[in-house]
TrEMBL record:
SMART domains: HTH_ARAC
Keywords: DNA-binding, Transcription, Transcription regulation
InterPro entries (UniProt xref): AraC_XylS_family_regulators (IPR050204), HTH_AraC (IPR018060)
Name of the protein: HTH araC/xylS-type domain-containing protein
Transcription regulation keyword on record: yes
One Pfam entry name: HTH_18
Gene3D superfamilies cross-referenced by the UniProt entry: Homeodomain-like
Entry keyword annotation includes Nuclease: no
An MF annotation (GO) of this entry: sequence-specific DNA binding
Domain (HTH araC/xylS-type) ranges: 133-231
Native source species: Pseudoalteromonas byunsanensis
Amino acid sequence: MPQGVFDIFINTQALLYGADKQLLLPSMWLVGQHTRQYQLIAEEPCWVFTIRLKPFALLPFPQFNALEIKNTIQSITRNFGGSGLASQIVESLSENKQQTADIRLAVCTHLAQTWLIEKVLSKANFTVPTIFRAESNFILRNKGDIQVQALCDNFSLSKVTIRKHFLAHCGLLSKEMSQIWRLNHFLMLEHSGKLPSMTHSAIAAGFYDQAHLIREFKGILDCTPKVFFKDRSFDAATITQIAKRFGGSYSPVIQAD
């Protein structure tokens, strides 16, 4: 589910990605910004340990072009000693079966945090671009219910300059980022069940009407909102994390199996 973030994940078994079923062997992978939902298919039981990168929307690796990796997954085992971390995590998750899942995940979290601090942040020569962070946070604070012109007015910048900032640091247009986070806000509202109808949730999230919601929903998630919630195959934990991100209480390290 697109959430306007970059992820790194390590898989213990082969996965198939996308419509062309790209083979992802056990390794470390960088997930670029996605504008549509994608699937990872495992043909046998598989652990997937995921690190969600913060600050949100920002690619912290100058070795990669944010626009070029849009809607792709790239191997990074050769970057920052990634092969060593991948091997350690695969071993911890696959071989230490005498330990509980919680213990194994705690070990992996420690390994990942140490790697990020010692191998990535200290050597990547990375600085947060202040103006882009302010622009993306402006969209996040408004939960995607914002027009490009409002960004321009708030920062006294042209549409061309805003476009350059987002494509360089994020790989998405500001409009695409707004669409993703507006849809995330709708998912959060509808899942909460606090509003009387789906239409009320759509309007509260910033959609003009139900037709506007359905058009953008199908464009990103490839189904209608009713089918999405009726199917009940969605990841409720992911929607819970949306609320945490909007509330500023999100933890950047996620563990999943």
